[in-house]
Design brief:
One of its GO terms (molecular function) is ATP hydrolysis activity. Keywords: ATP-binding, Cell inner membrane, Cell membrane, Membrane, Nucleotide-binding, Transport. InterPro entries: AAA+_ATPase (IPR003593), ABC_transporter-like_ATP-bd (IPR003439), ABC_transporter-like_CS (IPR017871), ABC_transporter_ATP-binding (IPR050763), P-loop_NTPase (IPR027417). By secondary structure, the protein is of the alpha/beta class. The chain folds into two domains: 221 residues, 3-Layer(aba) Sandwich (Rossmann fold), CATH 3.40.50.300; 83 residues, Alpha-Beta Plaits (2-Layer Sandwich). The chain is elongated, with a radius of gyration of 25 Å. The two termini are 33 Å apart.
Length: 309
Amino acid sequence: MHTILSISNLSKTYASGFQALKRVNLEIRRGEIFALLGPNGAGKTTLIGTVCGIVKATEGRILVNGHDIVTDYRRARELIGLVPQELTTNAFETVWATVSFSRGLFGKRANPAYLEQVLRALSLWDKKDSRIMTLSGGMKRRVLIAKALAHEPTVLFLDEPTAGVDVELRRDMWELVRALKERGVTIILTTHYIEEAEEMADRIGVINRGEIILVEEKAHLLRKLGKKQLTLQLEAPISDVPAQLAGYGLDLSADGGAITYTYDDTQSERAGIVKLLRDLDDARIRFRDLQTKQSSLEDIFVDLVREAS
């Protein structure tokens, strides 16, 4: 698949000596939804700011569809739309004037029909003549999204786009993201709502302390790193796991009424479950119910960050 964004050996060290990014290498494919996850202070916003030309890199190179963000800034930047975390708009302008100005800022010809389409998709059309200062926080967030889309970018950055917004905006936001993806727009998002990344993303990247520690296809990541748990509710509590079952690494609940077996979803491990049940029977441990649970993306993310710290 064609690479739309190429980041090579990107580093950023501030005057204080703090190194926010450490030789980051990342390739983003055209038309994918890429979720960048990381704890607060990991470098997500610095990385986005550097790609968008807001933050000056200490070293490294960024290419947007082959255009260097430093030596060919205008061509590279006009391909990018950015929805920042902060609500930064001219409070005295109307919604229509704001998005129209954003489009003209990138040298695009007026296209009222396109801007109307964007505003309608974000439920902003009936607010087009309202001044920004009169809008609610959620509506202001919608205006930021409309501004980012006004010049028809091919790469869209969404930096915590649904943080602190209502359920309706979150739903509208993801419907719009799906529609943009269908049109071939590449979307890179950061989010604290890991369930959103799990639902929306094609690939997942994890950044911690300025370093990319993992980039993986979402489905492959869940399959490779996700664990499954088999919990057996026992007919009668036990005080300890019998010695002959020690090799399974079973966890006994505090009340002794349940045991949990953690395994990978592979053929050999599934065969191991059959053997476990047989060995439980031999040990005269009976169970009355069982449940299985698979690790979520959040579980995997927490484990990865813990290992990298």
